[in-house]
Amino acid sequence: MQTPMTDAKTDAKTDANIQLPAIKLEAVPSEEIALPQPDFEIREMGIDDLSPVYHLGERLFTSEQYPSLYRTWEEWEVIGLYNTDPEYCLVAEADKQVAGFVLGTMIDKPTWTYGYIIWLGVSPDFQRRGIADKLVDKIVERMIEEGASSLMMDTDPSNEAAIKFFTRKGFGNPRQHVFLSLDLDRHEYYGRLVEYERGRSERHQYRRPKRQR
């Protein structure tokens, strides 16, 4: 999948070939619209939030909408980040339910440290009410406090709403990444391996048992 990456700082020392995780932002509003603001709270994700966040992500990040993502939504995305980067796993709570979430991480390089927004999603029931803005604002504050010099995200180039949203939040300097894939089912070695395994299975199946004396 080819995705544009936006960062808050251009540095000649950055690794231009690093493959960075994708952020899927279908649920993110492209602009603020004057709608009644719900009472919601931005807080750290707790252990009781793991299941609601995962199931909300299932609704937002489907394979039908994103068939070529190199990073897919699964339980480990939530559990793993909660275990390794709990301070960058935030949820928006409204009406006693998870209305949205942002999952991020910090990456340390020898010469600089930067933050990365990996996932951001808002429930369809709470979109266009400023929740995505508040989630991003809060994670930006935390990463600044921890010494990050820039913050990065990336998304599919067709996701115009996400690009517009993050541009409005101050992200810029878009870059293009090209992701290629190889269908191993059609690889020559794969065919030989299948034939070998099939032959071994048949030999084992028809092997005569030894006679007992």
Account of the protein in words:
- This protein has a single domain (3-181), classed as Aminopeptidase (3-Layer(aba) Sandwich), CATH 3.40.630.
- 30% of the residues lie in helices and 23% in strands.
- It contains five helices and seven strands; from the N terminus they run E-E-H-H-E-E-E-H-E-H-E-H.
- It is an alpha+beta fold and 213 residues long.
- The chain has helices at residues 50-60, 75-84, 131-145, 160-168, 188-205; strands at residues 3-7, 40-44, 89-94, 97-108, 113-122, 150-154, 172-177.
Strand residue content = 15-25%
Q: Kindly provide the radius of gyration, computed on alpha-carbon positions and rounded to a whole number of angstroms.
A: 22 Å
Q: What value does the average pLDDT take?
A: 78
> Tally the helices: what do you get?
5
* CATH class placement: Alpha Beta
Distance between the amino and carboxyl termini:
64 Å
Q: What would you say about this model in short?
A:
The longest helix has 18 residues. With about 210 residues, the chain is α+β, with helices and mostly antiparallel strands.
